[in-house]
Amino acid sequence: MQLRRILLLAIGVGAVVALFASISVNILLPWSVEVSVIDAPQEQVAGLSPNELNDKLLSGAIRLKSVSGADKAHYLFTQAPMVLARTWAYYFVASSIAAFVVGFLAIGRRAA
Question: What mean pLDDT, rounded, does the chain reach?
Answer without folding.
Answer: 90
